[in-house]
Request: fold
Amino acid sequence: MVEKKKTSESEKGKSLVRTKKQKLIIPLRGRKFQGTVIRKFEGRVTIEFERTRFIQKYERYIKTKTKMHARLPEKLKNEIALGDYIQIQECRPLSKILHHIVINKIRDGDKNESN
Reply:
């Protein structure tokens, strides 16, 4: 019975991340974000999305763009390209700027946006 519990936990809230030498199982927690890939590096991506912020002095909302860096797992490296709309989820800090992992690809990017 103990083994069944471990497998069910690993399926729900954990992500398997492979490095050069070993496999890491990183527990996922916290918020999920969706955004467009604006940069792609060897092991990470940068996404950008719009959100609204409330400015208390003027009692109005303003649109702002937010950039976030996320770890790119080995299994998704070939699937994700610039302009794709992806989903990331928060995890423990992996480095100074990496606090999220790419979960899945929602849709392909538009080819007109790259021009």
User: Anything to note?
Assistant: The longest helix spans residues 2-13. Strands lie at 14-18, 23-40, 44-55, 60-71, 85-91, 100-107. The chain has one helix and six strands.
